[in-house]
Automatic annotation (TrEMBL):
The keyword Transcription regulation does not apply. It comes from Meristemomyces frigidus. It catalyses: uridine(44) in tRNA(Ser) + S-adenosyl-L-methionine = 2'-O-methyluridine(44) in tRNA(Ser) + S-adenosyl-L-homocysteine + H(+). It comes from the Eukaryota. This is tRNA (uracil-O(2)-)-methyltransferase. InterPro entries: tRNA_uracil_MeTrfase (IPR011671). Keywords: Cytoplasm, Methyltransferase, S-adenosyl-L-methionine, Transferase, tRNA processing. Its EC number is 2.1.1.211. PANTHER family: TRNA (URACIL-O(2)-)-METHYLTRANSFERASE-RELATED.
Length: 626
Protein backbone atom coordinates (compact mmCIF):
# COMPACT_ATOMS: atom_id res chain seq x y z
CA UNK A 1 0.00 0.00 0.00
CA UNK A 2 1.35 3.44 -0.94
CA UNK A 3 1.67 5.81 2.00
CA UNK A 4 0.33 9.36 1.69
CA UNK A 5 1.26 12.50 3.56
CA UNK A 6 0.24 16.15 3.61
CA UNK A 7 2.46 18.72 1.97
CA UNK A 8 2.02 21.08 4.93
CA UNK A 9 0.92 24.02 2.78
CA UNK A 10 -2.44 23.59 1.06
CA UNK A 11 -3.64 20.43 2.78
CA UNK A 12 -3.40 18.27 -0.33
CA UNK A 13 -1.88 14.81 -0.07
CA UNK A 14 0.75 13.54 -2.45
CA UNK A 15 2.03 9.97 -2.84
CA UNK A 16 5.24 9.15 -1.04
CA UNK A 17 8.05 8.10 -3.41
CA UNK A 18 7.87 4.35 -3.88
CA UNK A 19 10.73 2.24 -2.52
CA UNK A 20 9.26 -1.07 -3.67
CA UNK A 21 10.89 -2.96 -6.51
CA UNK A 22 8.55 -2.74 -9.49
CA UNK A 23 10.35 -3.57 -12.72
CA UNK A 24 8.92 -2.27 -15.99
CA UNK A 25 9.97 -3.70 -19.36
CA UNK A 26 11.60 -1.07 -21.57
CA UNK A 27 12.77 -3.03 -24.61
CA UNK A 28 10.13 -1.45 -26.88
CA UNK A 29 10.78 2.14 -25.77
CA UNK A 30 13.60 4.54 -26.49
CA UNK A 31 16.87 3.71 -24.77
CA UNK A 32 18.06 5.75 -21.81
CA UNK A 33 21.53 5.83 -23.38
CA UNK A 34 21.68 7.95 -26.51
CA UNK A 35 24.87 7.11 -28.37
CA UNK A 36 24.92 7.64 -32.14
CA UNK A 37 27.23 4.72 -32.91
CA UNK A 38 25.96 2.25 -30.32
CA UNK A 39 22.38 0.88 -30.42
CA UNK A 40 21.77 0.48 -26.67
CA UNK A 41 18.69 -1.35 -25.38
CA UNK A 42 17.20 -0.38 -22.02
CA UNK A 43 15.82 -3.67 -20.67
CA UNK A 44 14.19 -2.85 -17.32
CA UNK A 45 13.43 0.11 -15.07
CA UNK A 46 12.21 0.43 -11.49
CA UNK A 47 11.41 3.39 -9.21
CA UNK A 48 13.71 4.04 -6.26
CA UNK A 49 14.16 6.57 -3.47
CA UNK A 50 17.86 6.32 -2.62
CA UNK A 51 20.00 9.33 -3.62
CA UNK A 52 23.08 9.40 -5.92
CA UNK A 53 25.63 9.11 -3.11
CA UNK A 54 24.13 5.77 -2.07
CA UNK A 55 24.10 4.62 -5.70
CA UNK A 56 27.85 5.24 -5.80
CA UNK A 57 28.48 3.42 -2.50
CA UNK A 58 26.47 0.38 -3.56
CA UNK A 59 27.89 0.21 -7.07
CA UNK A 60 31.47 0.37 -5.79
CA UNK A 61 30.66 -2.45 -3.38
CA UNK A 62 29.21 -4.54 -6.22
CA UNK A 63 32.24 -3.81 -8.39
CA UNK A 64 34.57 -5.05 -5.66
CA UNK A 65 32.31 -7.96 -4.63
CA UNK A 66 30.70 -9.48 -7.75
CA UNK A 67 29.87 -12.62 -5.77
CA UNK A 68 26.88 -10.63 -4.48
CA UNK A 69 25.29 -10.74 -7.93
CA UNK A 70 26.49 -14.17 -9.05
CA UNK A 71 27.00 -17.33 -7.01
CA UNK A 72 29.40 -18.55 -9.72
CA UNK A 73 31.96 -15.90 -8.74
CA UNK A 74 34.44 -15.80 -5.88
CA UNK A 75 35.57 -12.18 -6.00
CA UNK A 76 37.11 -9.45 -8.16
CA UNK A 77 40.81 -8.64 -8.28
CA UNK A 78 41.35 -4.92 -8.91
CA UNK A 79 44.19 -4.22 -11.35
CA UNK A 80 43.61 -0.52 -11.89
CA UNK A 81 41.67 2.22 -10.11
CA UNK A 82 41.94 5.84 -11.19
CA UNK A 83 40.47 6.91 -7.85
CA UNK A 84 38.23 9.91 -7.36
CA UNK A 85 40.82 12.44 -8.56
CA UNK A 86 40.31 11.74 -12.26
CA UNK A 87 40.78 14.83 -14.41
CA UNK A 88 37.95 15.29 -16.95
CA UNK A 89 40.35 16.81 -19.46
CA UNK A 90 43.13 14.21 -19.34
CA UNK A 91 41.21 11.25 -17.88
CA UNK A 92 44.21 10.69 -15.62
CA UNK A 93 45.03 11.52 -12.04
CA UNK A 94 48.22 12.86 -10.53
CA UNK A 95 49.50 9.45 -9.49
CA UNK A 96 48.18 7.50 -12.46
CA UNK A 97 49.88 4.14 -13.00
CA UNK A 98 48.22 3.54 -16.36
CA UNK A 99 51.42 3.86 -18.45
CA UNK A 100 53.00 1.09 -16.40
CA UNK A 101 50.21 -1.46 -16.92
CA UNK A 102 50.39 -4.28 -19.42
CA UNK A 103 48.19 -3.60 -22.41
CA UNK A 104 45.65 -6.32 -21.53
CA UNK A 105 45.04 -4.73 -18.11
CA UNK A 106 44.51 -1.20 -19.39
CA UNK A 107 40.94 0.17 -19.35
CA UNK A 108 38.93 0.10 -22.56
CA UNK A 109 37.81 3.58 -23.66
CA UNK A 110 34.18 4.66 -23.60
CA UNK A 111 32.41 7.94 -24.22
CA UNK A 112 28.70 8.57 -23.64
CA UNK A 113 27.55 11.95 -25.00
CA UNK A 114 26.69 14.41 -22.23
CA UNK A 115 28.35 12.40 -19.45
CA UNK A 116 31.59 13.14 -17.63
CA UNK A 117 33.81 10.25 -16.63
CA UNK A 118 34.74 10.53 -12.95
CA UNK A 119 36.37 7.19 -12.19
CA UNK A 120 37.65 4.09 -13.98
CA UNK A 121 38.33 0.65 -12.52
CA UNK A 122 39.69 -2.47 -14.20
CA UNK A 123 38.82 -5.70 -12.41
CA UNK A 124 39.18 -9.39 -13.08
CA UNK A 125 36.23 -11.60 -12.22
CA UNK A 126 37.41 -14.78 -10.49
CA UNK A 127 35.08 -17.80 -10.89
CA UNK A 128 34.49 -20.35 -8.15
CA UNK A 129 35.35 -23.22 -10.48
CA UNK A 130 38.26 -22.31 -12.78
CA UNK A 131 37.91 -25.70 -14.47
CA UNK A 132 34.55 -24.63 -15.92
CA UNK A 133 35.02 -20.91 -16.49
CA UNK A 134 37.95 -18.62 -17.07
CA UNK A 135 38.54 -15.30 -15.31
CA UNK A 136 37.29 -12.24 -17.18
CA UNK A 137 38.82 -8.79 -17.32
CA UNK A 138 36.32 -5.95 -17.26
CA UNK A 139 36.52 -2.16 -17.39
CA UNK A 140 34.11 -0.25 -15.14
CA UNK A 141 33.51 3.46 -15.88
CA UNK A 142 31.62 5.72 -13.46
CA UNK A 143 29.90 8.55 -15.37
CA UNK A 144 27.97 11.63 -14.24
CA UNK A 145 25.83 14.52 -15.49
CA UNK A 146 23.42 17.08 -14.04
CA UNK A 147 20.65 19.00 -15.79
CA UNK A 148 17.77 21.41 -15.18
CA UNK A 149 19.55 23.78 -12.80
CA UNK A 150 21.21 20.87 -10.97
CA UNK A 151 17.90 19.50 -9.70
CA UNK A 152 18.11 16.35 -11.85
CA UNK A 153 21.22 14.20 -11.54
CA UNK A 154 22.17 11.12 -13.52
CA UNK A 155 24.89 8.64 -12.63
CA UNK A 156 25.91 5.67 -14.73
CA UNK A 157 28.15 2.68 -14.20
CA UNK A 158 29.30 1.20 -17.49
CA UNK A 159 30.74 -2.33 -17.65
CA UNK A 160 32.87 -3.35 -20.65
CA UNK A 161 34.12 -6.96 -20.72
CA UNK A 162 37.49 -7.46 -22.41
CA UNK A 163 36.19 -9.85 -25.03
CA UNK A 164 34.97 -9.27 -28.57
CA UNK A 165 32.53 -12.12 -29.17
CA UNK A 166 29.56 -13.64 -27.37
CA UNK A 167 31.08 -17.12 -27.75
CA UNK A 168 34.12 -16.08 -25.72
CA UNK A 169 32.00 -14.85 -22.81
CA UNK A 170 32.08 -16.99 -19.65
CA UNK A 171 28.86 -18.54 -18.41
CA UNK A 172 28.65 -16.26 -15.37
CA UNK A 173 28.57 -13.04 -17.45
CA UNK A 174 25.69 -11.99 -19.74
CA UNK A 175 26.67 -12.39 -23.40
CA UNK A 176 26.59 -8.68 -24.22
CA UNK A 177 29.20 -6.25 -25.48
CA UNK A 178 28.51 -3.71 -22.72
CA UNK A 179 26.19 -3.33 -19.74
CA UNK A 180 25.13 -0.19 -17.87
CA UNK A 181 23.22 0.82 -14.74
CA UNK A 182 21.67 4.30 -14.86
CA UNK A 183 20.44 6.09 -11.74
CA UNK A 184 18.19 9.09 -12.46
CA UNK A 185 17.31 11.22 -9.42
CA UNK A 186 15.26 14.40 -8.97
CA UNK A 187 16.45 16.30 -5.89
CA UNK A 188 13.32 18.45 -5.89
CA UNK A 189 10.86 15.55 -5.54
CA UNK A 190 13.28 12.99 -4.01
CA UNK A 191 12.14 10.49 -6.62
CA UNK A 192 14.39 8.40 -8.78
CA UNK A 193 14.56 5.56 -11.24
CA UNK A 194 17.06 2.79 -11.75
CA UNK A 195 17.45 1.15 -15.14
CA UNK A 196 19.63 -1.49 -16.76
CA UNK A 197 20.72 -1.39 -20.41
CA UNK A 198 22.51 -3.80 -22.74
CA UNK A 199 24.64 -3.21 -25.81
CA UNK A 200 24.24 -6.46 -27.74
CA UNK A 201 26.93 -7.98 -29.93
CA UNK A 202 24.42 -8.05 -32.79
CA UNK A 203 21.94 -5.24 -33.42
CA UNK A 204 18.59 -6.57 -34.69
CA UNK A 205 15.66 -4.17 -34.87
CA UNK A 206 13.75 -4.65 -32.66
CA UNK A 207 16.33 -6.09 -30.24
CA UNK A 208 15.98 -9.77 -29.38
CA UNK A 209 16.84 -10.86 -25.86
CA UNK A 210 17.32 -14.50 -24.95
CA UNK A 211 15.47 -15.77 -21.86
CA UNK A 212 18.80 -15.96 -20.05
CA UNK A 213 19.62 -12.32 -20.80
CA UNK A 214 16.18 -11.28 -19.56
CA UNK A 215 16.52 -13.29 -16.33
CA UNK A 216 19.99 -11.93 -15.72
CA UNK A 217 18.82 -8.35 -16.21
CA UNK A 218 16.00 -8.85 -13.71
CA UNK A 219 18.32 -10.38 -11.11
CA UNK A 220 20.96 -7.67 -11.50
CA UNK A 221 18.47 -4.82 -11.28
CA UNK A 222 16.70 -6.40 -8.32
CA UNK A 223 19.98 -6.88 -6.45
CA UNK A 224 21.08 -3.31 -7.10
CA UNK A 225 17.69 -1.96 -5.98
CA UNK A 226 17.67 -4.12 -2.85
CA UNK A 227 21.10 -2.97 -1.74
CA UNK A 228 20.40 0.67 -2.56
CA UNK A 229 17.13 0.79 -0.63
CA UNK A 230 18.60 -1.22 2.22
CA UNK A 231 21.52 1.15 2.57
CA UNK A 232 19.13 4.12 2.39
CA UNK A 233 17.13 2.69 5.32
CA UNK A 234 20.25 2.47 7.44
CA UNK A 235 21.03 -1.21 6.96
CA UNK A 236 24.53 -2.17 8.02
CA UNK A 237 26.22 -5.43 7.16
CA UNK A 238 26.00 -7.65 10.22
CA UNK A 239 28.92 -9.89 9.39
CA UNK A 240 32.38 -8.68 8.41
CA UNK A 241 34.28 -11.49 6.73
CA UNK A 242 38.01 -11.95 6.17
CA UNK A 243 39.16 -10.08 9.28
CA UNK A 244 42.05 -12.48 9.95
CA UNK A 245 42.91 -13.85 6.50
CA UNK A 246 42.42 -11.72 3.33
CA UNK A 247 39.73 -12.97 0.99
CA UNK A 248 42.04 -13.43 -2.00
CA UNK A 249 44.54 -15.57 -0.15
CA UNK A 250 41.86 -17.76 1.38
CA UNK A 251 39.93 -18.25 -1.87
CA UNK A 252 43.03 -19.00 -3.92
CA UNK A 253 44.09 -21.66 -1.43
CA UNK A 254 40.54 -23.02 -1.22
CA UNK A 255 40.36 -23.32 -5.02
CA UNK A 256 43.69 -25.15 -5.07
CA UNK A 257 42.67 -27.60 -2.34
CA UNK A 258 39.22 -28.10 -3.84
CA UNK A 259 40.78 -29.06 -7.17
CA UNK A 260 43.12 -31.54 -5.49
CA UNK A 261 40.75 -33.17 -3.01
CA UNK A 262 37.12 -32.22 -3.71
CA UNK A 263 36.24 -34.74 -6.38
CA UNK A 264 38.56 -37.40 -4.97
CA UNK A 265 36.91 -37.39 -1.55
CA UNK A 266 33.35 -36.99 -2.86
CA UNK A 267 33.64 -40.00 -5.16
CA UNK A 268 35.05 -42.20 -2.37
CA UNK A 269 32.54 -41.10 0.27
CA UNK A 270 31.36 -44.07 2.34
CA UNK A 271 29.23 -42.36 5.00
CA UNK A 272 25.44 -42.01 4.75
CA UNK A 273 25.69 -38.22 5.18
CA UNK A 274 25.98 -35.69 2.37
CA UNK A 275 29.56 -35.47 1.05
CA UNK A 276 28.82 -32.08 -0.49
CA UNK A 277 28.64 -30.57 2.98
CA UNK A 278 31.34 -32.39 4.91
CA UNK A 279 33.99 -32.53 2.18
CA UNK A 280 33.87 -28.89 1.15
CA UNK A 281 33.40 -27.67 4.71
CA UNK A 282 36.65 -29.34 5.74
CA UNK A 283 38.41 -28.10 2.60
CA UNK A 284 37.40 -24.57 3.59
CA UNK A 285 38.70 -25.03 7.13
CA UNK A 286 41.94 -26.50 5.79
CA UNK A 287 42.40 -23.49 3.50
CA UNK A 288 41.92 -21.13 6.45
CA UNK A 289 44.42 -23.05 8.59
CA UNK A 290 47.04 -23.18 5.84
CA UNK A 291 46.88 -19.40 5.43
CA UNK A 292 46.79 -18.81 9.18
CA UNK A 293 49.86 -20.98 9.68
CA UNK A 294 51.57 -19.21 6.79
CA UNK A 295 51.41 -16.06 8.91
CA UNK A 296 52.43 -17.73 12.17
CA UNK A 297 55.16 -20.21 11.27
CA UNK A 298 57.84 -21.18 8.82
CA UNK A 299 56.33 -23.49 6.21
CA UNK A 300 57.21 -27.18 6.35
CA UNK A 301 60.58 -27.66 4.66
CA UNK A 302 61.47 -30.18 2.01
CA UNK A 303 63.44 -32.12 4.60
CA UNK A 304 60.37 -32.71 6.75
CA UNK A 305 58.37 -35.89 6.41
CA UNK A 306 54.64 -35.31 5.82
CA UNK A 307 52.60 -36.91 8.54
CA UNK A 308 55.40 -37.21 11.07
CA UNK A 309 54.75 -36.50 14.71
CA UNK A 310 55.28 -32.90 15.88
CA UNK A 311 58.85 -32.09 16.82
CA UNK A 312 59.69 -30.72 20.26
CA UNK A 313 61.50 -27.69 18.78
CA UNK A 314 58.35 -25.65 18.49
CA UNK A 315 56.68 -22.48 19.67
CA UNK A 316 56.57 -22.26 23.40
CA UNK A 317 60.31 -22.43 23.86
CA UNK A 318 61.70 -19.75 26.13
CA UNK A 319 64.94 -19.75 24.14
CA UNK A 320 63.60 -17.58 21.31
CA UNK A 321 65.56 -14.34 21.36
CA UNK A 322 63.95 -12.68 18.34
CA UNK A 323 60.18 -12.84 18.72
CA UNK A 324 59.71 -11.29 15.28
CA UNK A 325 61.22 -14.33 13.56
CA UNK A 326 58.66 -17.07 12.84
CA UNK A 327 59.43 -20.40 14.40
CA UNK A 328 59.19 -23.80 12.76
CA UNK A 329 55.74 -25.27 12.35
CA UNK A 330 55.09 -27.12 15.65
CA UNK A 331 52.68 -29.72 14.34
CA UNK A 332 48.95 -29.94 14.94
CA UNK A 333 46.46 -32.15 16.72
CA UNK A 334 42.80 -32.36 15.73
CA UNK A 335 40.88 -33.29 18.88
CA UNK A 336 37.56 -34.87 17.94
CA UNK A 337 38.66 -35.23 14.32
CA UNK A 338 35.46 -36.99 13.20
CA UNK A 339 35.68 -38.24 9.61
CA UNK A 340 39.37 -37.34 9.44
CA UNK A 341 39.12 -35.35 6.21
CA UNK A 342 40.75 -32.28 7.72
CA UNK A 343 43.64 -34.36 9.04
CA UNK A 344 44.02 -36.08 5.65
CA UNK A 345 44.22 -32.77 3.76
CA UNK A 346 46.66 -31.15 6.17
CA UNK A 347 48.95 -34.19 6.23
CA UNK A 348 48.80 -34.43 2.43
CA UNK A 349 49.85 -30.77 2.22
CA UNK A 350 52.93 -31.50 4.31
CA UNK A 351 51.81 -30.32 7.75
CA UNK A 352 52.84 -32.75 10.48
CA UNK A 353 50.25 -33.80 13.01
CA UNK A 354 47.56 -36.30 13.94
CA UNK A 355 43.93 -36.53 14.97
CA UNK A 356 41.84 -38.67 17.27
CA UNK A 357 38.19 -39.21 18.04
CA UNK A 358 36.11 -41.23 20.47
CA UNK A 359 34.79 -43.36 17.61
CA UNK A 360 36.40 -44.57 14.42
CA UNK A 361 34.68 -43.47 11.20
CA UNK A 362 34.12 -45.40 8.00
CA UNK A 363 35.86 -42.61 6.11
CA UNK A 364 39.19 -43.46 7.71
CA UNK A 365 39.32 -46.64 5.62
CA UNK A 366 39.50 -44.71 2.32
CA UNK A 367 42.73 -42.94 3.27
CA UNK A 368 46.21 -44.28 2.45
CA UNK A 369 47.85 -46.40 5.18
CA UNK A 370 50.34 -43.66 6.11
CA UNK A 371 47.40 -41.33 6.81
CA UNK A 372 45.44 -43.94 8.78
CA UNK A 373 48.34 -44.33 11.20
CA UNK A 374 47.76 -40.71 12.24
CA UNK A 375 44.06 -41.22 12.98
CA UNK A 376 43.45 -42.71 16.41
CA UNK A 377 40.35 -43.90 18.26
CA UNK A 378 40.87 -42.35 21.67
CA UNK A 379 38.90 -40.49 24.33
CA UNK A 380 40.25 -37.24 25.68
CA UNK A 381 40.19 -37.12 29.47
CA UNK A 382 42.13 -34.01 30.56
CA UNK A 383 44.81 -35.03 33.03
CA UNK A 384 43.63 -32.32 35.38
CA UNK A 385 40.39 -34.31 35.84
CA UNK A 386 42.22 -37.46 36.85
CA UNK A 387 42.55 -37.81 40.62
CA UNK A 388 45.18 -39.90 42.38
CA UNK A 389 42.67 -42.71 42.86
CA UNK A 390 41.81 -42.85 39.15
CA UNK A 391 43.84 -44.20 36.25
CA UNK A 392 46.82 -41.95 35.63
CA UNK A 393 48.24 -41.36 32.18
CA UNK A 394 51.71 -40.07 31.49
CA UNK A 395 52.41 -37.86 28.43
CA UNK A 396 53.35 -40.87 26.32
CA UNK A 397 50.18 -42.67 27.41
CA UNK A 398 51.67 -46.18 27.36
CA UNK A 399 51.71 -47.37 30.97
CA UNK A 400 48.10 -48.06 31.89
CA UNK A 401 45.26 -50.36 30.81
CA UNK A 402 43.52 -47.36 29.22
CA UNK A 403 46.60 -46.16 27.32
CA UNK A 404 45.20 -47.09 23.93
CA UNK A 405 41.76 -45.61 24.48
CA UNK A 406 42.40 -42.49 26.56
CA UNK A 407 44.41 -39.38 25.88
CA UNK A 408 45.24 -37.01 28.72
CA UNK A 409 45.30 -33.84 26.62
CA UNK A 410 49.01 -33.22 27.08
CA UNK A 411 50.82 -32.76 23.77
CA UNK A 412 54.31 -31.77 22.83
CA UNK A 413 54.78 -28.16 23.76
CA UNK A 414 53.38 -25.66 21.27
CA UNK A 415 51.39 -28.16 19.18
CA UNK A 416 48.62 -26.24 17.40
CA UNK A 417 45.26 -27.51 18.69
CA UNK A 418 42.35 -27.83 16.25
CA UNK A 419 38.83 -28.23 17.63
CA UNK A 420 36.24 -28.48 14.86
CA UNK A 421 32.69 -29.12 16.11
CA UNK A 422 34.22 -31.08 18.97
CA UNK A 423 31.20 -30.54 21.28
CA UNK A 424 32.33 -31.53 24.81
CA UNK A 425 35.91 -30.55 23.97
CA UNK A 426 35.02 -27.06 22.71
CA UNK A 427 35.18 -25.22 26.07
CA UNK A 428 38.31 -27.19 26.96
CA UNK A 429 40.15 -26.11 23.81
CA UNK A 430 41.60 -22.81 25.12
CA UNK A 431 42.38 -24.48 28.47
CA UNK A 432 44.29 -27.30 26.78
CA UNK A 433 46.13 -24.73 24.67
CA UNK A 434 47.09 -22.86 27.82
CA UNK A 435 48.35 -26.01 29.54
CA UNK A 436 50.35 -27.00 26.44
CA UNK A 437 51.68 -23.50 25.70
CA UNK A 438 49.97 -23.78 22.33
CA UNK A 439 47.89 -21.78 19.90
CA UNK A 440 44.44 -23.03 18.92
CA UNK A 441 41.37 -22.73 16.73
CA UNK A 442 37.92 -23.68 18.02
CA UNK A 443 34.83 -23.94 15.80
CA UNK A 444 31.92 -24.44 18.23
CA UNK A 445 28.80 -26.44 17.48
CA UNK A 446 26.84 -27.90 20.41
CA UNK A 447 26.93 -26.36 23.87
CA UNK A 448 28.55 -28.30 26.72
CA UNK A 449 30.01 -27.07 29.98
CA UNK A 450 33.43 -28.00 31.35
CA UNK A 451 32.01 -31.14 32.97
CA UNK A 452 30.77 -32.37 29.59
CA UNK A 453 27.08 -31.81 30.40
CA UNK A 454 24.73 -30.10 27.96
CA UNK A 455 23.83 -26.56 28.99
CA UNK A 456 23.02 -23.15 27.60
CA UNK A 457 26.27 -21.24 27.74
CA UNK A 458 26.32 -17.77 29.29
CA UNK A 459 27.98 -14.91 27.46
CA UNK A 460 31.09 -15.07 29.64
CA UNK A 461 32.73 -16.83 32.55
CA UNK A 462 31.57 -15.96 36.05
CA UNK A 463 34.69 -13.96 36.86
CA UNK A 464 34.51 -11.95 33.64
CA UNK A 465 30.80 -11.27 34.15
CA UNK A 466 31.56 -10.01 37.64
CA UNK A 467 34.32 -7.79 36.26
CA UNK A 468 31.98 -6.46 33.58
CA UNK A 469 29.42 -5.54 36.22
CA UNK A 470 32.07 -3.80 38.29
CA UNK A 471 33.34 -1.78 35.32
CA UNK A 472 29.95 -1.19 33.73
CA UNK A 473 30.90 -3.07 30.55
CA UNK A 474 27.99 -4.35 28.46
CA UNK A 475 27.98 -8.11 27.98
CA UNK A 476 26.47 -7.50 24.53
CA UNK A 477 29.92 -6.41 23.37
CA UNK A 478 31.08 -10.00 23.83
CA UNK A 479 28.58 -11.42 21.35
CA UNK A 480 29.79 -12.59 17.94
CA UNK A 481 29.42 -9.87 15.33
CA UNK A 482 26.26 -11.44 13.86
CA UNK A 483 24.27 -10.49 16.96
CA UNK A 484 25.99 -7.32 18.11
CA UNK A 485 23.50 -5.21 16.19
CA UNK A 486 19.99 -4.71 17.44
CA UNK A 487 17.22 -6.72 15.86
CA UNK A 488 15.08 -4.23 13.91
CA UNK A 489 11.98 -6.27 14.58
CA UNK A 490 12.33 -5.61 18.28
CA UNK A 491 13.86 -2.14 18.46
CA UNK A 492 12.54 0.00 15.64
CA UNK A 493 9.17 0.60 17.22
CA UNK A 494 9.33 0.50 20.99
CA UNK A 495 5.98 2.20 21.34
CA UNK A 496 4.31 -0.54 19.33
CA UNK A 497 5.94 -3.25 21.45
CA UNK A 498 4.85 -1.47 24.61
CA UNK A 499 1.29 -1.14 23.35
CA UNK A 500 1.15 -4.82 22.41
CA UNK A 501 2.37 -5.88 25.85
CA UNK A 502 -0.41 -3.84 27.41
CA UNK A 503 -3.03 -5.38 25.13
CA UNK A 504 -1.73 -8.92 25.67
CA UNK A 505 -0.15 -8.98 29.14
CA UNK A 506 -0.49 -12.75 29.45
CA UNK A 507 0.94 -13.72 26.06
CA UNK A 508 3.12 -16.53 27.34
CA UNK A 509 3.24 -20.34 27.22
CA UNK A 510 1.46 -20.49 30.58
CA UNK A 511 -1.51 -18.68 29.04
CA UNK A 512 -1.59 -20.98 26.02
CA UNK A 513 0.35 -18.66 23.69
CA UNK A 514 3.48 -19.92 21.94
CA UNK A 515 4.27 -16.54 20.41
CA UNK A 516 7.79 -15.24 20.94
CA UNK A 517 7.81 -12.42 23.45
CA UNK A 518 9.82 -9.21 22.85
CA UNK A 519 12.18 -10.23 25.65
CA UNK A 520 12.83 -13.58 23.98
CA UNK A 521 13.50 -11.90 20.63
CA UNK A 522 16.23 -9.80 22.21
CA UNK A 523 18.00 -12.83 23.69
CA UNK A 524 21.14 -13.95 21.87
CA UNK A 525 20.99 -17.37 20.25
CA UNK A 526 22.42 -20.38 22.05
CA UNK A 527 25.14 -20.61 19.39
CA UNK A 528 26.13 -16.95 19.77
CA UNK A 529 26.31 -17.40 23.53
CA UNK A 530 28.47 -20.51 23.13
CA UNK A 531 30.93 -18.68 20.87
CA UNK A 532 31.08 -15.76 23.28
CA UNK A 533 31.58 -18.12 26.23
CA UNK A 534 34.39 -19.99 24.48
CA UNK A 535 36.14 -16.70 23.77
CA UNK A 536 35.74 -15.65 27.40
CA UNK A 537 37.33 -18.92 28.57
CA UNK A 538 40.28 -18.04 26.35
CA UNK A 539 40.45 -14.61 27.98
CA UNK A 540 40.37 -16.24 31.41
CA UNK A 541 43.65 -18.01 30.63
CA UNK A 542 45.28 -14.88 29.20
CA UNK A 543 44.63 -15.31 25.47
CA UNK A 544 43.57 -12.45 23.22
CA UNK A 545 40.95 -14.36 21.21
CA UNK A 546 40.15 -13.41 17.63
CA UNK A 547 36.87 -14.32 15.95
CA UNK A 548 36.25 -14.98 12.27
CA UNK A 549 33.21 -16.06 10.27
CA UNK A 550 34.51 -18.79 8.00
CA UNK A 551 33.48 -19.14 4.37
CA UNK A 552 32.22 -22.71 4.76
CA UNK A 553 28.85 -24.37 3.97
CA UNK A 554 27.69 -24.50 7.59
CA UNK A 555 25.57 -22.35 9.88
CA UNK A 556 28.07 -23.21 12.64
CA UNK A 557 30.80 -21.25 10.92
CA UNK A 558 32.32 -18.97 13.55
CA UNK A 559 35.80 -19.75 14.81
CA UNK A 560 37.78 -18.51 17.78
CA UNK A 561 41.52 -18.26 17.20
CA UNK A 562 44.00 -18.07 20.06
CA UNK A 563 47.45 -17.12 18.82
CA UNK A 564 48.23 -14.10 21.00
CA UNK A 565 48.64 -13.95 24.74
CA UNK A 566 47.81 -10.96 26.90
CA UNK A 567 50.45 -9.03 28.79
CA UNK A 568 51.72 -11.55 31.28
CA UNK A 569 52.78 -11.13 34.85
CA UNK A 570 56.36 -10.51 33.76
CA UNK A 571 55.29 -7.84 31.31
CA UNK A 572 56.22 -9.73 28.14
CA UNK A 573 53.79 -10.24 25.30
CA UNK A 574 53.36 -13.78 24.05
CA UNK A 575 52.29 -14.69 20.51
CA UNK A 576 52.09 -17.70 18.28
CA UNK A 577 52.55 -20.04 21.22
CA UNK A 578 55.75 -18.43 22.42
CA UNK A 579 55.73 -17.97 26.16
CA UNK A 580 57.99 -15.78 28.22
CA UNK A 581 55.84 -15.30 31.28
CA UNK A 582 57.84 -17.62 33.47
CA UNK A 583 54.80 -19.61 34.62
CA UNK A 584 55.63 -23.17 35.53
CA UNK A 585 53.33 -26.05 34.70
CA UNK A 586 51.97 -26.35 38.23
CA UNK A 587 50.86 -22.72 38.24
CA UNK A 588 48.99 -23.30 35.00
CA UNK A 589 47.34 -26.42 36.37
CA UNK A 590 46.21 -24.54 39.48
CA UNK A 591 44.75 -21.72 37.38
CA UNK A 592 42.81 -24.13 35.16
CA UNK A 593 41.61 -26.19 38.13
CA UNK A 594 40.31 -23.08 39.87
CA UNK A 595 38.58 -21.95 36.69
CA UNK A 596 36.86 -25.32 36.15
CA UNK A 597 35.64 -25.53 39.74
CA UNK A 598 34.35 -21.95 39.64
CA UNK A 599 32.48 -22.48 36.36
CA UNK A 600 30.95 -25.87 37.15
CA UNK A 601 30.40 -25.24 40.86
CA UNK A 602 31.79 -28.64 41.89
CA UNK A 603 35.15 -30.00 42.95
CA UNK A 604 37.58 -31.15 40.29
CA UNK A 605 37.28 -34.74 41.58
CA UNK A 606 33.49 -34.77 41.10
CA UNK A 607 33.83 -33.20 37.65
CA UNK A 608 36.44 -35.81 36.73
CA UNK A 609 34.27 -38.77 37.72
CA UNK A 610 31.35 -37.41 35.72
CA UNK A 611 33.57 -36.77 32.69
CA UNK A 612 34.91 -40.33 32.69
CA UNK A 613 31.39 -41.78 32.96
CA UNK A 614 30.22 -39.69 29.99
CA UNK A 615 33.35 -40.59 28.03
CA UNK A 616 32.72 -44.31 28.48
CA UNK A 617 29.14 -43.86 27.29
CA UNK A 618 30.27 -41.81 24.31
CA UNK A 619 32.65 -44.54 23.18
CA UNK A 620 29.77 -47.01 22.91
CA UNK A 621 27.78 -44.86 20.48
CA UNK A 622 28.08 -45.48 16.72
CA UNK A 623 30.09 -42.95 14.73
CA UNK A 624 28.43 -40.36 12.50
CA UNK A 625 29.54 -38.88 9.18
CA UNK A 626 31.34 -35.95 10.75
Amino acid sequence: MTAVEGDGQNGTKTPEPSAKFNATTRTTTASDIDSPHEPWTTVLETPCTFPPEIFHIVMLNLIKNPNITSSHLFRADIFYDSGETLSPSTHQNKYDLLPHLKSEYRPLPAEIPGYERIRTIVRQLIPRNPLLDKPLLQTCHLLHRQTEADMVEENMVLYIPHTRTADAMPFYHPAVSKLAFLHHFNHDTNKGTLSLSYLLFSSPDPPILTPKLSRTALRLLQTMHKHGQGHFKGYEKRVQLDRIIPQKRYQDTYTLLKGKYGRLLSEQWVEVTDPGKHVFEDIGIAAFLVELWREMYLLPGDSGTPGSEPEDTVNGSNEQDDSSTPSAFPGFVDIGCGNGILVFILLSEGYSGFGFDARQRKTWSIFPPDIQTHLQQRLLVPEILLSQQMTKLNPSGESTPHARTWHNGLFKQGTFIVSNHADELTPWTPLLAYLNKSSFIAIPCCSHDLSGARFRAPLATKSIRAADIATGTSTKERLPQQQQQADPTTTTNNNYSSDQSKLHPTASPSSGSLATTPAQKKMPSAYSSLCSYTASLAEAVDFQPEQEVLRIPSTRNLCIVGRYRSRSRSGDECRDGRTSDGEDREARVVQVRDLVEAEVGRSIEVVGRGWVERADGLARKPGSGH
